[in-house]
Specification:
The structure is a single chain. With 373 residues, this protein is an all-alpha fold. It has one domain. The chain has 16 helices and 3 strands. It has a 3-stranded antiparallel sheet with strand order 1-2-3, covered by helices on one side. Strand 1 and strand 2 form a beta hairpin. Helix 4 runs parallel beside helix 16 and helix 6 runs parallel beside helix 16. The longest helix has 34 residues.
Amino acid sequence: MGREKFLRNFDWTLLATVILLGLFGLLMVAASTNTGDAELREILTSRFVFRQGVFLLIGIGAMVLLSIIDYNEWRRFIIPIYIFTLFVLLLVMFRGQSGILGAQRWIQIGFFSFQPSEFAKITIILTMAVVLSREDFSIDSWYNLALAIGPAVPPMILIFMQPDLGTSLVFIAITIGALFVAGIRWIHLGILSLSGLIGSVLAYLFVFKDYQQQRLAIFLDPWQDLQGMGWQIIQSKIAVGSGQFWGRGLFQGTQSQLDFLPEKHTDFIFSVVGEELGFLGAMALLAVYLFMVWKVFQVALEAKDLFGRLICIGVSSMLIFQLVVNVGMTISVMPVTGLPLPLISYGGSSLLATCIGMGLVLSVAAHRDTSLF
């Protein structure tokens, strides 16, 4: 009977939506990595598409497996998971691979490299859900509020020091979403928001590196540094604008195919969508995203406990923030922070972390009124 309830409660529509976005991501990775003179067969079997396809299969498998396991089982392992996450983030600082502008964000294990900060998002979602869902816990005082926020601070600082400003900001979005659902008082939220605003200004003036300051300011007028920081934003706007309503056609975008647009298969893949599939394709993609987020909210509302509801809100906060920032930076309404487009951008760590998050949401849906364990 338990398995019958599990199958009946399982959100097949949400699973199908995630897989659909992942497959569309494969198609756009193929389109963004095409050099313009390759045949279709060569494009679809390129190393970028192959690697992303492998990670997508692994991600789908992990998502299904996590949906089968009752999400409440993770309460018992949250302390070792949290400690291991901090350990790996510390390891990145000493043994991590250097990337763009000297940032250390990846760890190499054999032929495989992964970005621990992506998986740290899931750890914080689970950790905050465990803390805030305790029966004897309430965030009605500054002390308890500090206890609730505390777990998110160490990993956020470690990630900021890599430096990875964009991912560290995702932690703030996850934290705010969780606190709001847990019933934070408006006075506390207001004071925290004001403190965050003041802290952001001070960090910009005294903590941020020069290139981080330039990235946060250049989107207002990218033409002031045409050949430098502004180049990426300008080419992205040209790509999106040239797609007009219908788009130039798949594998036909000049900005992406002729390699004018940097990071076109990772951070700026939405620009490729806009150029090749046009306004119509871009809006269709955003509509699918909104549908997926709405389904996650629906699961949150139907969850059997606060722990499950907080997991769903944490995952949805992560998705919404990354979606808004990524799309915003490609059309120059938000600073460039290097956040990937969930399930679409090339990158195994981001894809796997998103699938793991969605697997937890599916578990909340499937175990509304039953447990297999």
